[in-house]
Amino acid sequence: MSEKPITRRTALKAAGTVGLAGIAGCSGTSSSNSDSSGSTDSLTAAFLYESEVGEVGWDRAHEDARQAVDDEFDWLETRFSEAVDSSDVKRVMEEYITGGTDVIFGTTFGFMDPMTELSPEYPDTVFEHCSGFKTTDNMGRYYGRLYQARYLCGVAAGLLTESNRLGYVGAFPIPELVRQINAFVLGAQSVNPDVTASVRWTNAWLDPPTVTQAVNTLINDGADVINNHQTSTAAVQTAAENDAYAFTYTTSMADAGGEFYGSSAVFDWEEFYKPTLQSVRDGEWEPDAYWKGLESGVIDIDDFGPQVSNDIVSEVDTQKEEIISGERSVWEGSQFEGKSDEFLFSQMGSYVEGIEGEVPSS
To answer: Taking every annotated instance into account, which residue ranges of this chain make up the domain ABC transporter substrate-binding protein PnrA-like (predicted)?
Structure first.
């Protein structure tokens, strides 16, 4: 055995279809499997969540996808840790790595800097970070163009509103959220140019009492459609209790919205995790910047609520197909038309016309 251990991923690239059981043993990792296609090796992947996994929300969407890929691949073993604080994420990752984990998925923005700092210390571990803007030689980043689904929800909202006033509860004033708020309002204005909107910021991903207060304020100010960027059902439930249409994101929250549920801009992370893990196993993984939209299936919109008419659904479907085909751009006619992906992803910091006030400094 050489003094420098041969890791699974390095061996895959060098060996092609040769059996790797002996090499895996030298590297101190678990033994490999071989299947009839000639692919060899098994993988272990760990998923790190910032909050406890509930029935809905951000972490639920990732956990559903983890379970799906775990069921899909017999050569894959997955693990997860929930309620991981950003200050503790390095320790948690190192425990997984020293335990033989091959791939680490950090599923929240706050894990970006710790992963960026740690990844060079473990060059044969694959790191993937969700929603951030940094990469290293062995750390990729991934997100979906959720603003496209937010836009489509906006189309429905623009046709549902009677007051022509929308309300939005945001978490933190970062480009990701500003981008989605703008897209939602632009979607509404595409079918109803009289629409205006107001935003309330909570400075927290999970703070149901503050969210409830923010929704009530927006409704008292005249909004009859509410959208939000929170990982609980508080905004949806509060809107519905006030007979305001409720839109949300990440997963369906139809039960919380009841008769006043609009829809949700949803993620299907299996569409990313499945090919990514397959590429690691095949020795073809690269640390790229994944940012795909409706055409990929990684993002979509949920089924609409009971008060959304067939005519509204038809209009949304039409615009959805136009976005997928490239006939329609979410940003057409706004100050962001023609802006680069780099700008859209990491630099958007102002509202489109029709949204009151200014984006606060983060």
So the answer is: 44-330
Q: In degrees rounded to 5, what are phi and psi of residue 139? A: -135, 115
What is the Cα–Cα distance from 90 to 108, expressed in whole angstroms?
14
pTM of the model: 0.88
Give CA–CA dist 21/290, Å, rounded.
32
Q: Tell me the domains of the chain and their CATH numbers.
A: 8-144+269-295 (3.40.50.2300), 146-267+297-346 (3.40.50.2300)
For residue 160, give the nearest of 264, 310, 308, 302 by alpha carbon.
Answer: 308
Alpha helices (H) along 169-260: 175-191, 208-220, 234-241, 254-257
> How deeply is 2 buried, as exposed, middle or buried, from its count of CB atoms within 10 A (0-12, 13-18, 19+)?
exposed
Residue segments in the chain with a per-residue pLDDT below the cut of 50: 1-38, 40
Q: What is the DSSP string of 136-183?
A: BTTEEEEEE-HHHHHHHHHHHHHHH-SSSEEEEEESS-SHHHHHHHHH
